Amino acid sequence: LNHTLNNDNLSEKQRFMKSYARKSSIRQTTQQYGNDQTLDKLDRMATLLDSRYRIPGTNRHIGLDGLIGLIPGVGDITTTAFSLYIIVQAAQYDIPKTRILHMLWNVSVDTIIGSVPVVGDLFDIGWKANIKNIDILRKALDRKRS
User: Fold this and answer.
1) I need a surface site. Which of 53, 87, 93, 103 has the fewest CB within 10 A?
2) Is the pTM of this model over 0.85?
3) What is the pLDDT of residue 118?
4) Using an 8 Å Cβ cutoff, are 134 and 42 in contact?
5) What is the pLDDT at residue 2?
């Protein structure tokens, strides 16, 4: 939620720079671990799920998680499956189990609260579990390398 609140106070240029820095950091991590297209793929998937589209008239972004989640029952199950795919792929990097558990926690919160009608749909717009999980993966890989 802090991530969401911080983005509200940023100018468009600051949001772009923050996004660019995050993507640049993912590229650096990818370079450190060789020509690994999996990290790029996971990053693109997380962005698509959590923040691909700007909501017109606002500075808020929504992804397929928030849109597909509007479909009762089926939507939340579908987006949870994609989120779990990201975690399974992250586990292939042999990062600490505590990081994997943190990722599972993020997806659990997203799934449980996201399944509540109306409130859950609004929550999905702000929580962005997949982007959080990619950031956890990137930081774990950076620590593993040092």
Assistant:
1) 53
2) no
3) 87
4) yes
5) 43
Tell me the sheet residues that pair with 54.
61
Residue 142: CB atoms within 10 A of its CB come to: 13
How many C-beta neighbours within 10 Å does residue 108 have? 13
Q: In which element (H, E) is residue 42 found?
A: helix 37-50
Closest to 65 in 3D by CA, of 116, 113, 121: 121
The angle subtended at Cα 82 by Cα 123 and Cα 37, nearest 5°, is 120
Parallel, antiparallel or unpaired: strands 53-54 and 61-62: antiparallel
Q: Which residue has the tokens 């990097």?
A: 93
SS (H, E, C) 95-142: CCHHHHHHHHHHHHHHHHHHCCCCHHHHHHHHHCHHHHHHHHHHHHHH
Q: 4: which 2 tokens?
A: 């969401």
Three-class SS of residue 80?
Answer: helix
Residue 61's nearest CA partner among 73, 72, 48, 74 is 48
Please state, in angstroms and rounded to a whole number, the distance separating the CA atoms of residues 15 and 6: 10
User: With a cut of 70, which residues of the chain have pLDDT below it?
Assistant: 1-35
Residue in the block written with tokens 């774990």: 140
